[in-house]
């Protein structure tokens, strides 16, 4: 009788085999479907990740390369009225990449979620209603 050989892959390798991409110290999943901001976040959380948080200019450039409208892990917290990352960190004035004239309330809409929209610009962020449908990017930090 033949014995099956079971190979246990390191956690990072398993994610890469499932379509995740490694960049610096994180793994990223770029969706092929569209969902609301909350549904997109739930997808990420169910996989041990969360919507992407932009921490560096290099990461900002990395996320722009996919040339599709994608949710960021950034939302306008209705309790505080401040733009907040999914980990609870406040968006700082010294590190943000809003597109020209953003954030705004286009046509009077309640636009409390952030997306990457203007790929060709370094300042590519836009705010839109959280109920809109977008692609998304999950991020999971991994050991270096």
TrEMBL record:
CDD domains for this protein: CLECT_DC-SIGN_like
GO molecular function, one term: carbohydrate binding
Swiss-Prot/TrEMBL keywords: Disulfide bond, Lectin
InterPro entries: C-type_lectin-like, C-type_lectin-like/link_sf, C-type_lectin/snaclec_domain, C-type_lectin_CS, CD209-like_CTLD, CTDL_fold
Listed SMART domains: CLECT (SM00034)
SUPFAM superfamilies: C-type lectin-like
Segments forming domain C-type lectin: 23-139
Gene3D superfamilies recorded: Mannose-Binding Protein A, subunit A
Cited Pfam families: Lectin_C
This protein's name: C-type lectin domain-containing protein
């Amino acid at each position: 009788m033949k014995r099956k050989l079971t190979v246990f892959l390191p956690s990072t390798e398993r994610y890469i085999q499932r379509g995740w991409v490694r960049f610096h110290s994180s793994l990223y999943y770029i969706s092929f479907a569209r969902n609301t901001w909350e549904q997109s976040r739930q997808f990420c959380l169910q996989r041990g990740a969360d919507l992407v948080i932009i921490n560096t200019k290099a990461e900002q450039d990395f996320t722009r390369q996919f040339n599709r409208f994608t949710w960021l892990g950034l939302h306008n917290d209705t309790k505080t009225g401040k733009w907040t990352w999914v980990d609870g960190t406040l968006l700082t004035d010294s590190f943000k990449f809003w597109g020209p004239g953003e954030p705004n309330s286009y046509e009077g809409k309640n636009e409390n979620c952030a997306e990457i929209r203007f790929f060709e610009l370094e300042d590519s962020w836009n705010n839109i209603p959280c109920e809109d449908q977008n692609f998304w990017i999950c991020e999971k930090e991994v050991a270096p």
